[in-house]
Fold these 4 entries.
Entry 1:
Amino acid sequence: MAKLRKRSDYLSWDEYFMAVALLSAERSKDPNTQVGACIANDQNKIVGVGYNGFPIGCSDDELPWDRQGDFLSTKYPYVCHAELNAVLNAISTDLRGCRIYVGLFPCNECTKVIIQSGISEIVYLSDKYRDSEQVRASKRMLDMAANISYRRFVPSKNTITLSLKVEV
């Protein structure tokens, strides 16, 4: 009888945590940009997740989702980014040594929160706003902060399929 071997197509830790971040993004009600974040500690345990949306108690039916127009008529003064929500939702206030996985490279405001929280690494999937002033400011701060690094996640597979259908 042949001895069974472990599966070889299992997810790496980076793939797993990025998938959790991307799955979290599916909770976002933003019609344009859905972003998720997942914070993992040095023991590879998830300690926080978040996605972009309005603060608790602020109606996503009453506040605007527009990207252009008068500032107060856009989503920008109201939305909380995924990274901020992941830090605020964390099960611990001590995030030193943790990694944060995000779909988009963090803006300057989220970068400040990440640095202040003690997170030591940012793993991002897309850097499509790399030329924006916000991301340039982010990278400037990160390059100055000696205790934090960032790297682009390069997936080894294009898709991860989840099925919610179970056989009974």
Entry 2:
Amino acid sequence: MTSAPVPLDTIDPPRDCPRCPRLVAAREALRRDNPTWWNAPVPAFGDPEAWLAIVGLAPGLHGANRTGRPFTGDHSGALLFATLGRFGLCTGTYANRANDDVALTGAMILNAVKCLPPLNKPTPEEIRTCRPFLDGEMAALPNLRVVVALGQIAHQSAVKVLGGRLPKAQFAHLAEHRMPDGRVLIDSYHPSRYNQNTGRLNEDMFDAVFARALELRQMS
């Protein structure tokens, strides 16, 4: 199985997606100030035959918005890719840049919001506007069985895409929700620098999420 920077390129938004005026303005300003950065909607990354989808919030300013690959370029990626490697979902050596030799096997990384939101806080309207892309990406994964949502916004978007109901699917770390079509959503705190530094999320807690995902795959 192979990884490609843009495995779902017919589904991901175009580079100059016009849907969210506030995000477009932020993107254009960053292109002027940092012309060598990616500064565009960040595509999905991983294995098109994935059984596992990992849904994040949105690109980080110095992370994916700079490098063009989810969870690459800032603090959160080190824990995520190391964890995926321990569970056989990632090969190569993560070097915090998009041109390293990292490849995913059996997994795909997606974002609830494809463009960088100012202060890392998308508005409810921006989340809704971007959801069709997440919906299309998940629909394009024929072997998808388990979804891991990193944080509450990712959880809410994943529940809606998978046909669940938010009042019945409350976010909590390691919470597990069976969706109407039989697929399972597992929640995790986001591996952000803040969550790691404050102890809200540690390596053992993150490992538990992916250990459970593998258990569910073996049971299906």
Entry 3:
Amino acid sequence: MKTLAKLPVTIVTGFLGSGKTTLLRHMLDNAQGRRIAVIVNEFGELGIDGEILKQCSIGCTEEEANGRVYELANGCLCCTVQEEFFPVMRELVARRGDLDHILIETSGLALPKPLVQAFQWPEIRSACTVDAVITVVDSPAVAAGTFAAFPDQVDAMRKLDPNLDHESPLHELFADQLASADLVILNKADLISPEDLARVRLEVAEELPPAVKVIEASSGRLRLDVLIGLGAGSEEHIDSRHSHHDHHHEGEDDHDHDAFDSISIELPQADESLLLDALTQLVVQHGILRVKGFAAIPGKPMRLLIQGVGTRFDKHFDRQWGGDEARTTRLVLIGQELDATLLEAQLRAALSV
């Protein structure tokens, strides 16, 4: 019997809003025939990131794509390793003859080190290797000294995580994401001056071993051969990478994310400007951390993709509505102590639907 080579795995980490999903979508759009499985770590009942990635042209039918995007809901990957991650990896290992690569997108607060250590487990180690851990950096945010585009929202999420030191500065979580990196992408490099970008590069380099490469990007647009095929074997050396939060994971089995509320709302077609104004008001009034979803805009043949971090919303039309597809607006709101009934009522009132 032919012995299969180890299946390479790329882990993409970084704060929410840094551009991880955009990077993965770019990688899948340029897969060049590679058969890629994707594990998406997403808060919320509605797998919006999974829906985004399923639209990428990865050379398979929609039915096949549905089987290749694995979504781990309600928690960072370091928390769900024993409950969800291992069964998913076991299924992928069983299919590794049909795959060329696995991509894993962590949540915005995931600490990558415990996830990489999971690849030391015998059943996974014999079949897979971590080709690289890629950390995506929001360059303008680091230049501003905030490390995330909306540090208050990121910090609020961090303080709900019992496995993190709530008194330490946000910089330590940023440093821990860098500590496991084999490749660092300074994203949104086009949005800051060359001088500021040089300062960001120096600040990032202080947290990295000399061998870790740092490259610049705009909207994650990089050649695929720069991103995969690095052969880092990260699981072999991850234990030697120092993390500020190493001790928080020793001997701890409980990692409760119940303090996060994630609600899904379905609405009819909605005027684009009215919807965005209404969502902005909800974010301000209820401290919503993140908004993701799709909107049906009257008179528009394409679906509007909406992604919000704090009061900043990014939007674009991502694809045509299917002929037999219901043109509805579906949203996920993530925050603390959210009242689903109240939020839906406020949205409907603002949209007069």
Entry 4:
Amino acid sequence: MTRVERATESKPLDPHSADGDHLASLEAQLKEAIVEIAELRARDALKTQFLANISHDLRTPLTAVITHAEILRDGILGDLAPRQMESVRGIISGGRQLLNQVGEILTYARGAANQLTLVCTEFAIRETLEQVSTLNESLLKKKKLHLAVDVAADVPHIVADREKIAHVVGNLLGNAIEFTPTDGHIWLRARRGAGHDAECVVVEVADSGVGISPEHHDLIFREFAQVDSTPSRSHHGTGLGLTIARKLVELHNGRIWVESDLGEGSRFFFTVPFDQPE
């Protein structure tokens, strides 16, 4: 054995030495950290399950409140005075808004627990865009917003979960309506594109609204995050809409992003491959 080999030869660590005590301390700390991580994961799983359970249980009474209010609005139990009708419409509007927020929480909880699955069928993306725009007609008219739907002629039918794609488009369109001033413009567009591994459809939801500062582009896709989180903010919500949209797009092996600047409107894009893997 050479002198260098003798000098560099590793020696067994004496457990009673200072180095041995330090190693034992590190091992103990590591074991404690592993236990703490396991406890945190268990608590997170319980929290997710609680959110799913409470959200599901809230939907039934909320739906009942809205249904009974609609019965009053439609005059099935007799005519209402103008002020009574105004109050009933307020109940319906507030109930629907709350039901939508509960639905977002439920979808988020299912996504966090990896309980979201795709039910894929073949459909035309144009029909989905037109369906979502029709569902939002009253909001568009209320704010006097101009909506245009433009789908390129060469976009074929896609194989995807139609309900979840409509959810993504509905969320993006809802945000565009909320953050676009009166007499503004909104566009729903679709064209062919190329994703990471396959051809895809690129859906765009653009508006002439307030826009988003570039430093907030990543923030808005984080769970519970809002650009304006002050109690006096004019736009309310759970802060989960774009997080859910990203989750649903990624389930389809697509991606979602935004191009925007403050005061210059926003353009949200997401991709969906024409065909989903088995």
